[in-house]
Amino acid sequence: MDAQTLQTxxxxxxxxxxxxxxxxxxxxxxxxxxxxxxxxxxxxxxVIDYLNNIKSGRM
Length: 59
Prior knowledge:
The protein is an all-alpha fold.
């Protein structure tokens, strides 16, 4: 999957979880950016953690 497709998917996932669209777009971009620069520990690996934080109200 290319980076843009994955970013669009993550944006949609965050929106579906209740994150405002603008915030979801920024978060998705930052996660993809981290992976593209080789910082995988701060990339898409964090999507599940972010979803848990959204659902619990911490994010």
